[in-house]
Design goal:
The protein is an alpha+beta fold. The chain has a single domain, classed as Winged helix-like DNA-binding domain superfamily/Winged helix DNA-binding domain (Arc Repressor Mutant, subunit A, Orthogonal Bundle), CATH 1.10.10.10. The protein contains 4 helices and 5 strands, in the order βαββαααββ. Strands 1-3-2 form a 3-stranded antiparallel sheet, with no helix packed on it. Strands 4-5 form a two-stranded antiparallel sheet. A hairpin with a 3-residue loop joins strand 2 and strand 3. Helix 2 packs across helix 4. The chain is elongated. 21% of the residues are buried.
């Protein structure tokens, strides 16, 4: 399980992620949800990268308290091996096949 305190700027960023995970408890100050499994994390990353290309730091910031940087890095490496995402020259990841 993962818990996260909400900050004003985080509320909009986390709503999409929260909708993909099972929320165990929520109030105005805290959200407790199950952590994503490997496949759920990959889908969350693909969804985030379909909006815009992001670097690891940006992705970790959006998923802070939900997935560790190491898990995000492993998921990105697997998605890259499968040809679903690519690492751009500037260090950002982008979903392949998006316009």
């Amino acid at each position: 399980m993962s818990s996260r305190k909400r900050k004003k700027k985080d509320v909009g960023d986390t709503n999409d992620v929260e909708n993909k995970l099972k929320v165990v408890y929520s109030d105005k100050d805290i959200v407790v949800m199950t952590a994503p499994n490997e496949e759920e994390l990959k889908q969350i990353l693909l969804d985030l990268l379909s909006e815009k290309a992001m670097n690891l730091k940006e992705l970790h910031s959006k998923l802070s308290g939900i997935a560790s940087e190491d898990k995000i890095r492993r998921a990105l490496a697997d998605l890259s091996e499968k040809g679903r995402v690519t690492l751009l020259e500037d260090g950002r990841y982008a979903k392949l096949g998006t316009e």
